[in-house]
Design a protein that fits this description.
Strands 3-2-1-4-5 form a five-stranded mixed beta sheet, sandwiched between helices. It has helices at about 10-25, 30-40, 45-55, 60-70, 90-100, 115-120, 125-135, 150-165, 235-245, 265-275, 295-305, 315-330, 340-355, and strands spanning about 170-185, 205-220, 225-230, 255-260, 280-285. Helix 10 (about 265-275) links the parallel strand 4 and strand 5. It has 13 helices and five strands. It is of the alpha/beta class and about 350 residues long. Helix content is about 45%, strand content about 15%.
């Protein structure tokens, strides 16, 4: 029914070119969408089905199907517009994008506007406009870590399930250690904040030793059980479990979320857990400390106390940390975990799909 559609059959070369255009990082979003429309129409599929699948209107699908049938790959390019012809050709733009993404300068780890201008023969301002248009920032970098845990999905579902639906008559504690907390004393007194002048401190310091904070963060009310130890071994971890056992009412089960550190998995620790059946341990996936809420609390402690603290001894450092924890527990603040396990896994899948096609 309706107007007959133009027949669309792709050659192997056209299909390969369309696939590259749909996935290449150097393609504009508009051109990539047109390539995906043509590929979907070649399955074949009705225009309405393709429109729903790609989130566009049916007339848009019909337009690019017809233009491809009439002019093949050339029909997917933007039509000539009135006005002054562009001073920078599309081939030059594509060359800059390809070189930015797929190569490096000889004497540096990344391109700068100056080095890319010298390499391409364009001006630095033109390079800057091209990079801004395609949101490229060669000077910037960020970090990431993908877990290689074979039980990643199961562990994410388990831990996030505890956050959203904690068991009845039980307490959920996120447990970890913040090791190597240094007692640092600046070589000269800190200059306090004044109008027009920030706090100033010397770049050099004296070390007066280290301590380790064992902490259990209650995800329900935000309270923290904390102990400071001079050493960081399985023996100290087992002593901390004893402290948790004493602090939590006997009628409640204890669900512990912790990472895969070796000190958490020694035979002595497992034997202690076997003698205390109300304790249930839930391990986060390897390399996924962001799942443990106590890590967020450690970051807050570092920002509020440790980073700018001045301590003349380990004893002074430990007194301040204990006082800070006491103050925190007077007005605790639980963190709100919003994402479900399904949302986390879907987000990760989209990221993996995105980076897997970056080289095509």
């Amino acid at each position: 029914m309706g107007r007959p559609k133009a027949e669309l059959v792709l050659s192997d070369e056209e299909r390969a070119a369309l696939t590259r255009g749909a996935r290449a990082a150097s393609s504009s979003q508009a051109y990539a969408l047109r390539c995906r429309i043509v590929l979907a129409c070649a399955e074949p599929a009705p225009n309405t089905e393709v429109a729903v699948r790609l989130g566009v209107s049916a007339p848009t699908v019909g337009k690019w199907r017809s233009r491809f049938v009439a002019s093949r790959l050339a029909g997917l390019a933007d039509e000539q517009r009135p006005g002054r012809p562009p001073s920078i050709l599309l081939d030059q733009v594509e060359e800059v994008l390809t070189d930015t993404l797929a190569s490096r300068p000889v004497n540096a780890t990344h391109w700068s506007r100056a080095s890319m201008a010298a390499h391409s023969g364009l001006s630095k301002s033109t390079i800057g406009r091209i990079w801004r248009r395609f949101d490229l920032k060669p000077h910037s970098q960020d970090g990431f870590k993908l877990s290689t845990d074979p039980l990643f999905v199961e562990k994410v579902v388990d831990v996030v399930g505890l956050y959203h639906n904690p068991p009845e008559r039980a307490v959920v504690l996120c447990v970890d250690e913040k090791s190597q907390i240094q007692a640092l004393d600046r070589s000269q007194p800190v200059s306090p904040t004044m109008p027009g002048m920030p706090e100033r401190r010397t770049h050099d310091y004296q070390r007066h030793g280290t301590t380790t904070l064992f902490a259990a963060f209650n995800v329900a009310d935000g309270t923290v059980i904390g102990e400071l130890r001079r050493r960081h071994r399985a023996a100290e971890y087992k002593k901390f479990l004893v402290a948790i056992d004493k602090a939590v009412p006997a009628e409640l089960d204890v669900h512990i979320v912790c990472d895969n550190l070796a000190t958490h998995k020694t035979p002595a620790v497992y034997q202690w857990l076997a003698r205390h059946p109300r304790f249930h341990v839930h391990f986060t996936p390897t390399g996924s400390s962001w799942l443990n809420q106590v890590e967020r609390w450690f970051a807050y402690l570092t920002d509020q106390l440790l980073r700018r603290g001045v301590h003349t001894s380990v004893q002074s450092l430990e007194r301040q940390v204990n006082a800070w924890i006491t103050t925190w527990n007077d007005n605790p603040k639980p963190f709100v975990w919003k994402k479900t396990a399904e949302e986390i896994l879907n987000s990760l899948a989209k990221y993996l799909q995105r980076i897997s096609g970056a080289g095509h």
